[in-house]
Every structure is written in structure tokens, then in C-alpha cells.
Specification:
Layout: E1 2-5, E2 11-17, E3 24-28, H1 39-47, E4 51-55, H2 72-86
Parallel strand pairs: 3-4
Antiparallel strand pairs: 1-2, 2-4
Keywords: Hydrolase
Pfam families: Abhydrolase_1 (PF00561)
InterPro entries: AB_hydrolase_1, AB_hydrolase_fold, AB_hydrolase_sf
């Protein structure tokens, strides 16, 4: 677990479980959830040998609580920042 800093200086919390060289599955939650809502699914796929990644969208969970950037472009850029940082 850790944080990735986006291009607009927002801290995005993520979970990254499993072997780094395994096939990744990336989970992206909707409003008003957080990465914690994927735990059961993540544990299932982890038990099957996958690498599982989930993040908290900006303004959700443990990510930066901001009033701006709650649109599909920012959410997609945030997810890309996590995928790029974790190489998955």
C-alpha cells in the first residue's frame, strides 16, 4: 500500500498485492466507494495467482480530499498514474 502523486499534485492511495511479475488485475471503484470495497474480489484473484491493484479515487478513501477534478478525465488520469507508477 502506498501513494502515487498525480501531475496536479494529488495523492492517490493504492493497494498492490501479489507477485510483481504476475498478470495484474486493476480494480476501479465508483462513487461513493473506496478500494476497500474490492477486498473480497482482490483476495479471490490473489489466491489464483494474480497481482491485484486497487486505488481510491481523488476525494475518496485515503486519497487527497479535494473539491476539484471530479470528472472522468481526472479519474482516468489518476488511474493511469497508478498503473504507470506500478508498471501494471
Amino acid at each position: 500500500m502506498g501513494f502515487v502523486t498525480t501531475d496536479d499534485d494529488i495523492q492517490i492511495f493504492y493497494k498492490d498485492w501479489g507477485p510483481q511479475d504476475a498478470q495484474p488485475i486493476v480494480f476501479h471503484h465508483g462513487w461513493p466507494l473506496s478500494s476497500d470495497d474490492w477486498d473480497a474480489q482482490m483476495l479471490f484473484f490473489l489466491s489464483k495467482g494474480y497481482r491485484v491493484v486497487a486505488h481510491d479515487r481523488r476525494g475518496h478513501g485515503r486519497s487527497s480530499q479535494v473539491a476539484e477534478g471530479h470528472d472522468i478525465d481526472h479519474y482516468a488520469a489518476d488511474a493511469f498514474a497508478v498503473a504507470r507508477a506500478l508498471d501494471c
